[in-house]
Amino acid sequence: MEQERRASEARLRSILETAPDSIMMVDRAGKILFINRARAPLVTSEVVGRSCFDFVPAESHHRVAAALDRVFTRRMLDEYEVRSAPTPDGESRWYAVRAGPMIEGDRVVAATLCATDVTARRRDEERSRELASRLQKIASQVPGLVFQFKLRPDGTSCMPYASDRLRELFRVSPEDVRDDARKLFAILHPDDYKEITESIRYSASTLHPWQAEFRVKFSDGEVRWFYSNAVPETQPDGSTLWHGFANDISQRRESDRAKAQLEEQLRQSQKVESIGKLAGGVAHDFNNLLTSMMGFIELALTEAGAESSAAEYLAGAMDAARRGAALTQQLLAFARKKMVRPEVLDINEVLQRMGTMIRRLVGENLELTLSLSPTLGKVKVDVGSLEQVIMNLVVNARDAMGESGRITLETRNAFLDDDYCRTHAETHPGEYVVLTVTDTGVGMTPDVQKRVFEPFFTTKPTGEGTGLGLAMCHGIVKQAGGNISFTSAPGQGSTFRVFFPRMIGVTPPQPISIWTPATTTASAGNETVLLVEDEETILRVAREALSALGYRVITAPDGVRAMELIERTLERIDLVITDVVMPQMGGRELATRLAVVQPGIRILFSSGYSENAISADGVLDEGINFLQKPYTPTTLARRVREVLDR
């Protein structure tokens, strides 16, 4: 038995001495009764008999005491980690301690402490925490989301890692998707869900990098755009793990949309501008023809008997010529080449003056509402052109409705900021006066909206519209420095908004309306008039018409011949009527030279197309007398008398 006891002790001693851990027994007070080995430079004999508290820092004494109390009082195991007291060279190590009771009979005679050196593990954990902290700091500086996404073999998914930007961008916490990514898929836009899930499965099967632009739709209805890319790798368990990045691109998408919209507006503007140049050139030649035609017809009417068939035929020809003249005026307005004389005016007063005519035009079956701002600002625009815009917009609204409906004309002040101007081509920030015409008609399809301001485009049946109404409005508003826009949808009516720059601190004079009948009639005269015109037929008609009224008429085919005539004869000229666009010397240069030869001489310009010869974009300067082609002899005589008598 003694031999067996000694053999058993030898085996136990061998186990204790070869065990990688430090094993000791301590009493209730913490005195070390046994230790299998001591940590260098200490030896076992120096450790046995001392207190275990001598080998741990003071801040850990309470934890060791609590473990001993648990063992001796409650006879329970306890586990804790404790750092050893530093050695003379300053080194300190960490130990994971497992404490248990040694029981003899019915009492605990000692506590067995098994201490495992976990310094390396603690250092690895510290390094892992440090790396995780660095990663978190880096991820927090990245503008988007850094993530890991795992697709398991059973089809379920999760996000083992996601930076805190997940909360901000997707309104989901990293904890919500760490084990199950369903909450993330739940906010995918329904229209993008199938495409995204299929692209993920394809990336998993091919291990090709995954990238996509997609939308998410939050519970409050907000939709945001995101771009994401990720690189996949296969895991030992058969899962696919992506390392990726995602960013909110809603602002970029909106910028791209606005850019595309502006580019489309620019293309439309350039197309309209090109057509406008062509229309202006055609109108110039056509106006010369109409001037000759109308002149000869009116002269022929003076020779024909009032009751004759010839007079009736000539009157029909004159009516057709006037319609042609109105058409050329629309072309010039569209091309922004119509001569205008802007005035400072109140749009409310113009609408009120035109109210009766507008109501008659709309008809009794449609409701007309005027909503006029009492504090409306003033604008500078040609009153006749403004009235044409109003009438065309009202007619357009009327034709868009059936037997019933409502047309609303509204005025208000507005400020266009940089954000608005960035999304609307050819607009500038500032104060504006807005005229809005709204109807409850059929509205316009997207295809119609793209062409709404194109000349000769109309949705009306053949013979019921020229397609120049809205094109003319566009040209008039642009020429006045304003902007015209619209909103419409099929079945929801249309709203046209006309923006005119607001004039601040200006009192408007009383404008002369084109709807007010002219009271001035042509009268005779005996003054000397110089006619300068390169179109021979117009020259002939004008000479005969003025000569018949008693004027002494001198003619010249161009500006150079006119100057030679005046310098040779030195005759006093009361009035010069000159075409604006002529070969060799135009009307403006002629007027400048005549002012030197005969200061104060009166000039009456005439043209069917300005080409900036006497104006800036067709806007007449103050003091310039102008007669728009085409004109009749009666109109010419009346205008001559007005200029001479002024």
Largest β sheet strand count, sense and barrel closure: 7 strands, mixed
User: Mean of residue pLDDT?
Assistant: 82
Count of DSSP E strands?
A: 24
Please tally the helical runs, counting DSSP H or I stretches of 4 or more residues: 19
SS class: alpha+beta
- The proportion of strand residues reads 15-25%
Shape: rod-shaped
The radius of gyration computed from the alpha-carbon positions, rounded to a whole number of angstroms, is 48 Å
Quote the distance from N terminus to C terminus: 150 Å
The CATH homologous superfamily of the largest domain is termed Histidine kinase-like ATPase, C-terminal domain
CATH class of the largest domain: Alpha Beta
* Uncertain segments: 511-520
Count the domains.
5
What percent of the residues sit in helical stretches (DSSP H or I)? 40-55%
CATH topology assignment of the largest domain: Heat Shock Protein 90
CATH architecture of the largest domain: 2-Layer Sandwich
Question: What do you see in this structure?
Answer:
The protein is α+β, with helices and mostly antiparallel strands and 646 residues long. The protein folds into five domains: 14-117, Beta-Lactamase (2-Layer Sandwich); 140-248, Beta-Lactamase (2-Layer Sandwich), CATH 3.30.450.20; 264-334; 343-503, Histidine kinase-like ATPase, C-terminal domain (Heat Shock Protein 90), CATH 3.30.565.10; 528-645, Rossmann fold (3-Layer(aba) Sandwich), CATH 3.40.50.2300. The chain is built from 19 helices and 24 strands. α16 (536-548) links the parallel β18 and β19 (552-556). 29% of the residues are buried. Mean pLDDT is 82; it is low at 511-520.
